[in-house]
Each structure stands twice: as structure tokens, then as C-alpha cells.
TrEMBL record:
PROSITE patterns: GLYCOSYL_HYDROL_F1_2
The keyword DNA-binding is assigned to this record: no
Entry protein name: 6-phospho-beta-glucosidase
GO biological process, alphabetically ordered: carbohydrate catabolic process
Protein's UniProt keywords contain Ribosomal protein: no
Pfam families linked: Glyco_hydro_1 (PF00232)
Organism annotation: Gracilibacillus ureilyticus
Amino acid sequence: MFQIKTKFPDNFLWGGATAANQFEGGSNVGGKGLSVSDVYYFDEDIPKEQLSNQWLKMTRKQVEEAQDPTIKKYYPKRHGVDFYNHYQEDIALFAEMGFKAFRMSIAWTRIFPNGDEQEPNEEGLAFYDRVFDELNKYGIEPVVTLSHYEMPLNLVTKYNGWVNREVIDLFVHYATTVFERYKGKVKYWMTFNEINSCKHHPYVSLGLIDEDHLHLEQAKYQGAHHQFVASALATKVLKEIDSEAKMGCMVSYTLFVPYSCAPEDFQKTMDRQRDALLFSDVQVRGYYPGYTARLLADRNVVLKMEPEDEQILRNNPVDYVSLSYYMSSAVSAQPENLEGAIGNLLVGGIKNPYLPESAWGWQIDPKSLRSALNQLYDRYQKPLFIAENGLGAVDTLEEGDIINDDYRISYLREHIKQIKEAIADGVDVFGYTSWGCIDMISASTNQISKRYGYIYVDQDDMGNGTKRRIKKQSFYWYKHVIKTNGEQLE
């Protein structure tokens, strides 16, 4: 009756993940409008440890300045690594690795440049037709995020972002347009990338500019509520258009662990974990969990909900849960005298003395991925998809086009081992798309020198270079992993 699963499923979706705003480029062609990510600039004189500050907090002055064509600043995410013109070459390389799936996003601004048009931009729709057709040619399943940190900038400046309920209808109109257009071409969808990250970077997640909101916590949770409703309505529309398609939610998942065995540390850890679980609870279960009342009260937040909202959420839960996993984080109720894990950008926390860290100070904890997968599956009993997991590092291009990235191979190998352990635990994991299968612009620091990919792109932080694609050692390693369905990881 009981049998341990010792192997990855035969139909496991191995692949890689990208985001249009970091990867695609072509911001000035094909009728594309400006997105929230297109206003982040890169300056070589900014110290590395301060590069992410801009991502966490955006000012109205910066937004206005970014729309001025006379400003002489470099905005990396407008250029990406030019997938727009290299998509055939890049997809062929993914196919050579043996990808079963490619997690990507559609740039909302390529379909509706301002976000509030009635008619979509045909050039944008046609571009993704070509991309999906190219993926289909190689038998690669697209896993598509509708909004991955790239909402139209006009929805920020004109509507005040997701705090405005009108944006729900605009998003659903966009979702309906692409569902109808790509029916039969896309089976797996996600609504919002790392939806719980709105707590940490509300501008890029919700279109909220801090200075415009006297009570920022209120704006964050109100905007998140509107995204929950929009996600549920998009799920409803998807099922009406294509009953075979699947909709997932996507959360940034950090496993929180107590720094000590003190009861206060344990309670604080549970509180931190619930901060993330609230977002998946609503989308998977279809209702706000019991701890919501106290969580919101502690933040002096009072949600404004319409009478139909609860029923919309309850009737339209997602089909699967996807997550990004990069680290765990130790939690203390009294962190004042402890060393902080400053590299753990979004979640902070206490430095765990048992863990190594990356060049950017991210603590590395493969074993907690197993724990995270068990935690989510025990809670929801719905299939899980690992949408992001990877190591940002400086890669050196050696003579003969050789990039020895054994550190990346080691990182990925240890995490894949833990996925296999979770499957043996009985967890239903159906796919793994490692983050940054090809080098692209870092979400937080706007650099390309913080590289994640199996494929090196000849480009520097200021956009200079040939854009030539070069296979790293990890390319060949991952190709073998996929070929053996995860059985041979060495």
C-alpha cells in the first residue's frame, strides 16, 4: 500500500526561468510602453551594498525623471539581454539542454502599453505568438507569469497603482486578452510573481510610491487584496476560456527557523512564516486565514472589501502552488545584539552560523528547501512547482570561451537532491525551473555581473558587449541532469 517514490516523475518539468523585464529588452520597439521596472537605473559609482536600495524604495522624482528622454542615465531593464531579437537562438540553446519547460513572463506593457487601452497592441501579441511557436517546435512547455514586476508605469502615475480598485478590471482585461490569444499554446499560468514580496518592495510589486501614502502598510495590504481578487477573477476567466489550462499562485518562500530554542524565538518565527503564508492561503484555500485579524490589527490596517469579494476568492482558488526558494532565515525575538544577515535582502533576519553565503551575502541552505516543500504540501495538498532557485555569482570568461562555474553546479546539485528527498517524503512536485537559465539583469541590483545562467551573455553592467551567447560548464552538467531525469547529479 505504501511505497516511497525514489525517483523524479517521468513527466517532471525540468527547465529554466526568466522575466521579461530583466531579459527581453526591445523597450523602444513593437509599441511597448514603460513598465515599473523600466525606471531603475544603474550607476557604476554606487557601492555594491547600496545597489538594492533603489529597488526597495522608489521616489516620485525618480519616476518622473525616468520618463524624461533628455536624462543621461542607463536603464538596464529597458535593454535586458535582447531576447526580443535573440529568442530563436536562446530557445534553441534551451532545447539543446533538454528543457521540458520554460518559465517566462509576458510584458503587460507589450500588450497594453499604458495598461488602460481597450484594444491590445497587435505587434506585442504577435511577438509572443512567435515565442510560443518556437518553444512548441522543440516540445518545451511554456509556464507563463502574467505580471512579473512589469505593470504599466501609467497605472502608477495615473491610477496610484494597485491600491486603486479600478486596476482589477484593467488586469482582468489584459489576462482575458492573452488567454484567448494563446489558448492551446500555454497550459500553465501564474498570476503575480512573488505576490507576498509587496511587503518588502511595494513599488515594483504594487505600483506604490512610498511618499504618496501616509499609511504605507494600509496601502500594501489593500493593494494585495485587490491582487487577490484580480487573481481569482483571472482564474475564473481562464477556466471559462480553456478548461484544460492550469492556474498557479507564486510566492517568494523563505523558510524561517528559530535562532534559539527560546519560546519567544519560536513564536516570532511562526509570525514571520505566516507573513508569507497569508498570501498563498488566500489564493489556494480561497479565504483569509484566522490569524489575519490580528496580523492586520498589529499593523493598524483595515481592509476595504466589496460584498462580493469573499465569494470571488472562495469560488476561484488556484490549481497549484509555485515558489521561489533561495534561502532560509534565522529569527530572534531579540535581534539587537545578534549579527544580521544583511545579504538576505528581502527578509533580513539573523545570520545563521551554520550556513555559508554567496558573494552577495545570501545564506545558502539547500536542506531547508526540502522542509519548505513539505511545509507547503502538508498545508495545501496541491501540486508544487519550483519556479525559481539559483545562485548569483561573478563568472570569469577564460580563453577558449570557457566558464568554470563549479560553484553554481554545487549549489544547484545540493538543492535538486533535496527536491528528490521531498518527493520521497510524499510531496507532489511537478517541475523545477532554475532562476536565470541565461544571464540577465539582476532584479535587485540592476547588474548583469551578478550572473545566474547556464549561458553567459557577453555584456557588462553598462550594456556594452557583443551579446554573444557562450555555454558555461553548468550548461553541460544540467543537460546531463535532465537527460537522466535527475538520477545523475555529479
